[in-house]
Design goal:
The chain is α/β, with parallel strands linked by helices and 558 residues long. It contains 15 helices and 16 strands.
């Protein structure tokens, strides 16, 4: 007779040990299979079972043909989970990078929840821990994959890695991963290598099986790292869409025989679950940004040139998964003005200037429809928004997004034409659109009345009462802006001027200031923002400090 109390104690001990170390694979030969068998639902999958599922897919399309700027486009689709497959890519039990191992440990429970819900809805689950098939030689899921009838037409490409598909030739790969992408502290990495050796593992290739937190259902799931087997499984179950989760998005998820590129090249509807992935990117490599920003850049590359993405909350509810180490505030740049070409200057400044500290997204105004700013709904997720918009009446739906953001008391930053962003000069709202003529006064505490001639280059100096303010404490006395001087005086009483612009024969005008809005939120505005301003370090520092100031002040009561 089995001693039930002893079995329970063993299970508790194994779970405790697993929770105390990154070596979560301790005891995985028991936990990874037995748990899956105990808690899986028996019985064969019913083809097309469990109703419809509405998903929102995100892609990026060029603002104009050949443009290096992209609109964010979302579309809704009705899917059946019974015609969906989920591939879990290389979610290994250990990795040669300590940080990569820790991030997989953190993400694995969310992957488990997503896969479990998909399985319950009738989805096909394919576990693909590459190079680990020996551990599953006799597992029912591995045997099932090997015995699946071969599809009548298997693309040649799915037998090997794919490093690029033709669509990617239109862009530039966004990160340098030539060093392997480890972002570990060297001392911690060396200690981790010793831990792996002590556990009898090869420190450079320590993976032996899939992460034990992700259940393998012995009755229904498949285990394979072979492209032709994956293709045959998809054919056998008449799969219409394939979701990829796992790591690493810039390497295995994209390039494996069963990865996104090969699926797309073979004609499958492939989708990356963008919050259930991670990259191998080292911030010490180009473009020298935060690790999570590096991941974002690869996801954006995929959305532009490979396939759409979605998030796990669309199946699980709640919020998308986010790593604990990803503490970056979400900064949305809304760029919709052609006069000063901030689609180039501001967008080019964003990555090197802000990519270390912020999760940056750019949305651009439509070239063909003055009332359209695709992606403006990202305001609902932003922690701070920066506007470079000029005379854009909006649809009621988009204007409601702007007003809701303001009502939330979140910070706002504006440059140059953001003093007159959402109305046409001295004109009523076009039919079907909405304007906000008082935006300058309401949001910035400003008083825009046009500008002086372009032939004048204003000298910009600090406000006499605020020379020690940290936003402008090192402002150069010799700063000259190549852009015209805006007429902005007088400011609202609650505005605090930081910089003034002067031209011969005219009264000085406020050029940069902070403002506590009537709704309680905080704003920072500068009428600088000409392309020549972006070329000057003083302006770049001003903009970075202004953004940071609004975030610091957002929760401080006036």
């Amino acid at each position: 007779m089995i001693d039930l109390r002893r079995s329970v104690c063993v299970w508790v001990l194994l779970a405790l040990l697993a929770s105390l170390s990154p070596l979560r694979w301790l005891g995985s030969s028991v936990m990874g299979v037995t748990v899956g068998t105990v808690f899986s639902e028996p019985g064969e999958r019913e083809r097309g079972a469990s109703g419809d599922w509405r998903v929102t897919l995100r892609r990026r399309e060029a603002v104009t043909e050949g443009s290096r700027h992209f609109h964010i486009r979302e579309s809704q689709h009705d899917w059946s989970l019974g015609r969906t497959a989920v591939i879990i890519c290389d979610l290994w039990d250990a990795h040669h990078s300590f940080n990569a191992t820790e991030r997989v440990n953190e993400m694995a429970p969310r992957v488990e929840a997503f896969v479990s819900r998909a399985r319950q809805g009738g989805a096909v689950i394919i576990h693909a821990p590459s190079d680990c098939m020996a551990a599953y030689e006799d597992h029912a899921g591995r045997l099932r994959a090997r015995e699946i009838p071969a599809a009548p037409e298997i693309p040649v490409g799915v037998q090997q890695w794919c490093t690029q598909i033709p669509a990617e030739q239109a862009g530039t790969y966004p990160i340098d991963q030539s060093d392997g992408g480890e972002d570990d502290d060297p001392t911690r990495n060396a200690a981790w290598a010793e831990e792996l050796r002590a556990a009898g593992r090869n420190p450079r290739q320590p993976w032996l099986r899939q992460h034990p937190d992700v259940t393998i259902d012995a009755v229904r799931d498949y285990i394979t790292d072979q492209g032709p087997e994956v293709w045959s499984i998809l054919h056998q179950h008449d799969i219409e869409q394939v979701l990829l989760v796992g790591v690493h998005v810039n390497m295995c998820v994209l390039g494996r025989p069963f990865g996104l590129r090969n699926l797309v090249a073979g004609g499958k509807q492939a989708v990356l679950v963008r919050d259930l992935t991670d990259s191998m990117y080292n911030p010490a490599s180009w473009p020298y940004v935060n690790h999570h920003t590096g991941t974002d850049l690869i996801i954006q590359h995929i959305e532009k040139f490979v396939c759409p993405t979605m998030t796990s909350d669309q199946l699980l509810g709640g919020e998308p998964f986010r790593f604990v180490s990803d503490s970056r505030p979400r900064l949305l740049l809304v760029i919709a003005e052609p006069e000063y070409q901030t689609d180039d200057s501001l967008a080019d400044f964003a990555l090197p200037g802000l990519g270390q500290e912020y999760a940056v997204e750019c949305v651009f105004g439509s070239v063909n429809d003055p009332a359209e700013i695709p992606g403006l709904a990202l305001l609902t997720q932003a922690d701070v928004a920066l506007l470079s918009v000029r005379r854009r009446p909006l649809t009621p739906a988009d204007m409601s997004l702007v007003r809701a953001y303001v009502r939330s008391r979140k910070p706002l930053v504006g440059i140059r034409t953001a003093s007159h962003p959402f109305h046409w000069q001295d004109q009523a709202a076009p039919e079907g659109l909405e304007i906000w003529p008082s935006f300058d006064a309401d949001i910035w505490g400003g008083n825009y009345q046009g500008h002086f001639g372009n032939q004048h280059s204003p000298r910009v100096t600090t406000d006499a009462a605020n020379t020690s303010d940290r936003l402008v404490t090192d402002w150069p006395e010799t700063y000259t802006s190549p852009g015209s001087l805006y007429r902005t005086a007088p400011l609202a009483e609650a505005a605090r001027p930081l910089l003034w612009g002067s031209i011969e024969g005219q009264d000085p005008q406020p050029v940069a200031w902070t403002y506590r809005r009537a709704d309680g939120g905080v704003s920072f505005y500068t009428s600088l923002g000409h392309a020549g301003d972006f070329a000057q370090p003083a302006f770049q520092n001003l903009l970075k400090r202004g953004i940071a100031w609004t975030l610091e002040m957002r929760d401080i009561e006036p």
